[in-house]
Design a protein that fits this description.
alpha/beta, 7-stranded mixed β-sheet, 6 helices
Length: 191
């Protein structure tokens, strides 16, 4: 006859040996030196209008919304901005509305060493683009609102200068606001 405690142990072992361990998906990943580029390219292929890509400084927080994926890269932020900008430009299905923190223009060099050079270099990268500025909190509200329905990719870099995140709000690359307005006018006239 098998003792009661041995029977319980055998039952537990049988249960655990048949069960599958499921790990919770980790939302933050560290991308190896060049793997982040492949991840960005693949993400842009999947994304469409209303998705966002954010190239963030080192202090950007990990957001709790599961639609917001954060990756950390050991790369110069301007290199990442330039790469994201290039991949978006190369794609035919999306273009980007670019937002910068309004606060960045008011950050003094004495308070954040390197900000003057950063602004100059960023302006060179984005010189042919229409760039909008908004208060940081207002951009975050837009991002959060969008993430209720659409995915967001945050690329967290090693930059340690405040208010330097660059927000790419994706839009349709082959349809514009004027064409949409013309369509809506035609639809309304047929009622």
């Amino acid at each position: 006859m098998i003792p009661k405690t041995a029977l319980v142990l055998i039952t537990l072992l049988a249960l655990f040996s048949c069960s599958k361990v499921v790990q919770q998906k980790e939302e933050t990943t560290t991308s190896a030196s060049e793997n982040w580029k492949t991840e960005v390219e693949n993400t842009i292929q999947l994304f469409g209008h209303r998705n966002w890509i954010v190239v963030a400084d080192g202090a950007y927080p990990k957001q709790s919304n599961p639609a917001i994926k954060t990756i950390t890269v050991d790369a110069n932020q301007l290199e990442v901005v330039q790469f994201v900008n290039k991949v978006i430009k190369k794609s035919s299905h999306v273009q980007a509305n670019i937002f910068l923190d309004k606060e960045m223009a008011f950050v003094a060099e004495k308070d954040a060493k390197g900000i003057d050079k950063y602004r100059t270099d960023l302006n060179k990268i984005l010189e042919s683009k229409k760039v909008q500025t908004m208060l940081h909190e207002d951009i975050i509200k837009e991002l959060d609102s969008s993430a209720k329905v659409f995915d967001v990719l945050i690329i967290k870099t090693n930059l340690t200068i405040p208010y330097t995140s660059v927000f790419f709000q994706l839009d349709c690359g082959y349809w514009n606001a004027e064409a949409e307005q013309n369509l809506r006018t035609s639809l309304n006239s047929k009622k």
